[in-house]
Amino acid sequence: MGYSKKYLPLFIGLAMGVGVFLGSKLNFSNPSAKLFSYNAKKEKLNRLIDYIDYEYVDEINTDSIVDVTVNRILENLDPHSVYIPPEELEGITESMQGDFIGIGVSYYPFRDTISVINTIKGGPSEKSGILAGDRILMADQDTLYGERLRRDRLADKLKGELNSQVQLKVYRRGKGVFDVVVKRGRVPLQSVDASYMLQEKMGYIKVNRFAETTYTEFKRALDSLQDMGAEALVVDLRDNGGGFIAPALKMADEFLKDDELIMFTKNKKGAIENNYATKNGSFEKGDIYVLINENSASASEIFAGAIQDNDRGTIVGRRSYGKGLVQREMALGDGSAIRLTISRYYTPTGRSIQKPYSNGNKEYFNEYLERYKNGELQNADSIQVADSLKFKTPGGKTVYGGGGIIPDIFVSKDTTRVGETLDYMLRSGRMGGYIFEELDKKREYYNQLTKDQFKEEIQIDNEFAEGFLAYTRRNGVDLKLNNYREQLKKYLKAIMAQQLFGTNEFEKIINQDDKMIQKVLSLSPE
């Protein structure tokens, strides 16, 4: 049973005090743990919680009191100190680890059935012979179809212990129902979406987040591109919200000379920790271009700031998000955790790129709207900067702190917003659902296509595009895209390529005529 709303002010009034009590439960692995030893104040609040739990006249869920209290405390600290409840922690941890234990398929709930979009290359399902278009009906004795089976529960049925076996009942058009045994294995969650050659001597790598495996993925891609002759590189960090700092530091190290400063952090006591490049860099001489936009944050900004402040490369795009706070995840002992801001980071020239948050979280997170209103997303001259936050790089270039990384070369945002509409249709799953259904009509033909055959044989015509618009109308969305058929057709082909061959082929198609990439190509001596 929950607590009545009329008691909420009472409990919120206790927030700061209970926070001290909760602090004693935090799991620190450093000497600061002594701060949480016994004292009378903590014992007093501990007793208060017990009194409410055992003696209060109405039934009160003290766990809920604590959750509300923790959230309210953190909201009053900064926008990035957050509480993570137990039911969310596993998924977040899994995402940032870079892999999970499962059977290795991407799937789409088509007509209430798990329908395989594709299998992870070299993964358990591919090894067991599962193909795109297969329907997974059962896992061991569990039924995996039906209207009420939620997507998250479907995923739980397919996960398990490493090397454990699961017997699947699978339906394939033309073959019927059959059984297949799959041994669960480690399934990678890619943080490098694409790596390919843009030109004869220019490579391209897109990183979607910074997870534990990101540097390993990035280094593999970089080595491969260098083997293909890359002497210049585009690192695409657009819409990369960050993650772990360590992979960003290792990535920057690939491009900076020995002992060049990558970034430094400063905590509440003023203690400074510097991070320098090592002798491990393998791309210290070639041209580098970093793409950023208003959604590039945190570790993305560390990387871009290191490249910019060391006069190493060219930053292209729009001003980044502006997150310069460092969090540490700390367990609360009940399966939940907090991410608490423990320091600020600074770029090599000494600038903080953290945007202000003194006016509250709502205004902080709505700052993007202000950028849109003041014209910053269309015109570099509209970027508001203070002279007091002006810094100089060793090469004499002027850079600014106080809120994000300002690019060296500005590229405006699409004013038609058609790209945003198409991105939304992609994220919502509607575009992917339509493509899956179309592929499923001729699954045998599509599954045997090579990449070269796909490129030559598959053309998205107006009829196919109109079919998608009709599909969205049937699902309650009327898109006004008659004047943007070419962009729509490009997206549809890109998603088809993604479902057949993976994200690398998707990015190759989406990046055709991309404004930022075209700007880089115009800057390149090649």
| Secondary structure tally, helices | 20
Strand content: 15-25%
CATH architecture of the largest domain: Alpha-Beta Complex
User: In CATH's first tier, which class of the largest domain applies?
Assistant: Alpha Beta
* Number of individual domains: 4
Helix fraction bin: 25-40%
Q: Biggest sheet, open or closed, and with what strands and sense?
A: 6 strands, antiparallel
Fourth CATH level, the homologous superfamily of the largest domain: 2-enoyl-CoA Hydratase, Chain A, domain 1
SS-derived structural category: alpha+beta
Q: Which blocks of ≥5 consecutive residues have pLDDT under 50?
A: 1-29
Query: Taking Cα atoms only, what radius of gyration do you get, to the nearest Å?
Result: 26 Å
Arithmetic mean of pLDDT: 87
How many extended strands?
21
What's the end-to-end separation, in Å? 68 Å
- What would the principal axes of the Cα set say about the shape? globular
Folded structure, characterized:
By secondary structure, the chain is an alpha+beta fold. The protein folds into four domains: 72 residues; 90 residues, Pdz3 Domain (Roll), CATH 2.30.42; 219 residues, 2-enoyl-CoA Hydratase, Chain A, domain 1 (Alpha-Beta Complex); 105 residues, no CATH class. 37% of the residues lie in helices and 21% in strands. It is built from 20 helices and 21 strands. Strands 3, 4, 5, 6, 7 and 8 form a six-stranded antiparallel β-sheet that branches. Strands 10-11-12-15-16-21 form a six-stranded mixed β-sheet, sandwiched between helices. The longest helix has 17 residues. It is globular and about 70 Å long. The N terminus is likely disordered.
